[in-house]
Specification:
This protein is of the alpha/beta class. Helix content is 21%, strand content 24%. It contains eleven helices and 26 strands. The strands form six sheets. An eight-stranded parallel β-sheet has the order 5-4-3-2-1-10-9-6, with helices on one face. It has a six-stranded antiparallel β-sheet with strand order 11-12-13-19-15-17. Strands 16-24-21-20 form a four-stranded antiparallel β-sheet, with no helix packed on it. α5 packs parallel to α6.
Length: 626
């Protein structure tokens, strides 16, 4: 929404005597980090596709009821507004798109900034033939007396760009991420340990060794300018690091100032970099960051652990390493305020390349498990990389080509896109958990054994949802099994159960609370008394639409009472063509799922629902050519 911060009047009165004058805030992140009350968001990197507008991409990300587009459960976006883009097209070029995002319920968006227009780029060459990526004139004063119509100094190109950008989009964005992966390392020194030559824990990187092609103090200077400009306009917005990959780079930021003279503390440069950001944003790709293997001297080779739970452990391990650095410099809530956390790129592939993990099942499980783990570990957003595949399956050559929540978008007509299994899973976890709050105490009461993971999530009107799974442990396998019994103190006899594909196969089954069977794929359980069925169906119905069908066919069931049921598709000779479920204990209420046209010959078929006791319902459907 176009926000007026509830803290704005207080902060203005305390720190900003006159907002229009936009003077330097009299506080830093060493004094104040605004509280966050927005709830956990299911984010995505929107990406860019040749035939799609940003508004259309948002439709298929969040879902657009007016267009009957279901979406993939996205509630926040990570977007880019580089200076080179807005300088050429105008600063209002994306206002309509941001307003459209808001209309779809997408909010608390992340915008990463930087990337100067050519005329504002630093001409310095830190090594022969390699030019700085940074803005020129970063060390010009940030503020002037408003001679040119703005309170920022027109000669400080980055300050002017950010001032204009935040004025235009500050009501629609919440997080301002400074650059994207500023620590991208070309030579591998970011991973060296203290004591090793050139390591980043003790030495500053050479400018040409990493993405910015500039002294690291220039990045800290960007953080300082960003903090002053953004807070002067939207005190409750957050300044975030660019999606970092290396804790050693965070150490660089926290141990020195923006002083171009080796980051020294002086009256002109009094504070180190941690004073100028509120949020630690990082990227996590567990399949390539050594999370899934360990060296063994016994076999003189790596031992691999390529499964979804190990991926989640890798994501949390990296967060822990960043947190250790923050606490080392006093950002633990006592010396200085704690930082907030977001992950602005993460995923694992569904395609195996070389030794990397890759499967649909692992990707589905990782996206659900990582959403649970983020909420359990104070991460406010996770943005999946990315909305659509980069290539079609036949043309994919890199594991990054097949990480989309949709298959490749430019190869299909608008709004005829196909969700991947990962997209269905993401829509499911968002639909079932968005608006809930993780309850650590209730989770502790579950007393889960070491072989089972999960948590309890509370909704103010819908009660508790429990997400549980058996922990995976075998290399290249998502197979796992366990049985769990809810504590007797919960006074729960039966639960409604939903699986990862609920967004497409909206089937709810009934399971006994004292014998819940678990696999490596998470399930969602809800106490039946919390399921509001006050206006439930009075009779059993079966309906199929559209009929005839040439694309997806939606099958809807309504049951007045829980019952065992089977559903299958038959041809006109009585042969079973597809079975959807057999002797499942379905809950009372509505059930829905979609079958795809692919693989079905043109002709007439029968959808048959069989209930315990011998009752059956049938509907004849006609399959047409595509």
């Amino acid at each position: 929404m176009n926000r007026i911060s509830p803290l704005l009047p207080l902060l203005v009165s305390l720190f900003l005597p006159h907002v229009l004058a936009a003077q330097t805030p009299n506080y830093t992140a060493n004094d104040l980090v605004p509280a966050y009350h927005g709830g956990y968001h299911y984010g995505v990197n929107l990406g860019a596709y040749y035939f799609w507008t940003d508004q259309q991409l948002a439709d298929i990300a969040a879902g657009n009821p007016a267009l009957k587009v279901p979406g993939v459960g996205v509630t926040s976006l990570r977007l880019s507004l580089p200076e080179g883009f807005v300088d050429y097209w105008g600063y209002d070029i994306r206002i309509d798109a941001f307003q459209h995002y808001e209309s779809l319920g997408i909010n608390d968006n992340v915008v990463f900034v930087g990337y100067p227009a050519e005329q504002h780029r630093d001409p310095t060459e830190p090594c022969p033939g390699v030019r700085s990526e940074m803005f020129a004139n970063l060390y010009e004063p940030i503020w002037d007396n408003g001679e040119n119509g703005t309170p920022v100094n027109e000669n400080n190109f980055y300050a002017v760009y950010l001032w204009k950008l935040v004025q235009a989009y500050g009501g629609y964005a919440r997080y301002w991420e400074i650059w994207n992966e500023p620590d991208f390392d070309f030579v591998g020194k970011s991973s060296l340990k203290p004591g090793e030559p050139g390591n980043w824990w003790e030495y500053n990187p050479e400018p040409c060794d990493y993405a910015l092609h500039a002294p690291v103090q220039h990045y800290i200077r960007m953080l300082r300018i960003s903090y002053e400009v953004i807070k002067s306009l939207y005190p409750n917005d957050y300044v975030a690091t660019g999606g970092l990959g290396y804790p050693s780079f965070l150490d660089l930021i926290l141990r020195q100032t923006d002083n171009p003279d080796q980051g020294k503390v002086t009256p002109e440069y009094p504070l180190t970099g941690g004073a100028y950001f509120d949020v630690l944003s990082f990227h996590s790709y567990p399949h390539i960051d050594n999370s899934l293997r360990e060296w063994s001297n016994d076999i003189f080779d790596f031992v691999y652990f390529r499964h979804s739970d190990r991926c989640v452990d890798g994501m949390l391990r990296l967060k822990g390493e960043f947190d250790t650095v923050l606490r080392k410099y006093g950002y633990e809530g006592t010396t200085y305020p704690e930082k907030h956390w977001i992950i602005t790129e993460s995923n694992i592939p569904r395609m195996e390349v070389d030794e990397y993990l890759g499967s649909d099942e692992a990707q589905v499980n990782y996206l659900i498990k990582s959403a649970v783990a983020c909420q359990q570990n104070s991460v406010d957003q996770l943005h999946v990389y990315q909305l659509g595949d980069i290539e079609t399956e036949k043309d994919a050559r890199s594991e990054f080509h097949l990480m989309g929540l949709y298959t490749e978008l430019d190869s299909v007509a608008k709004y005829e896109q196909q969700r991947t299994q990962a997209g269905i899973a993401y829509a499911t976890v968002s639909h079932l958990l968005y608006g809930t709050t993780y309850d650590a105490d209730r989770t502790a009461q579950l007393n889960l054994p070491s072989s089972i993971r999960g948590g309890a999530f509370h909704h103010p009107t819908e009660g508790y949802t429990y997400v549980l799974w058996a922990m995976t442990s075998k290399d290249r396998s998502e197979a796992a099994s366990a049985s769990y019994s809810f504590p007797s103190s919960f006074n729960v006899k039966t639960l409604h159960r939903r699986t990862w594909d609920y967004a497409e196969r909206a089937i709810t089954t009934v399971v006994p609370a004292d014998a819940v069977q678990l696999t490596g794929s998470p399930i969602f359980l809800r106490d039946r008394k919390d399921e509001h069925q006050t206006d439930g169906p009075t009779r059993t119905t079966l309906a199929c639409s559209p009929n005839p069908f040439s694309g997806p066919l939606t099958i809807q069931l309504e049951l007045p009472d829980a019952t065992n049921a089977s559903l299958a598709l038959y041809d006109m000779t009585g042969r079973v063509v597809q079975r959807y479920f057999t002797d499942e204990k379905l809950a009372e209420g509505q059930h829905r799922f979609t079958i795809q046209h692919g693989g079905l010959a043109n002709g007439v078929y029968i959808v048959r629902l069989q209930l315990e006791g011998g009752t059956s319902l049938e509907e004849r459907v006609v399959c047409l050519g595509e």
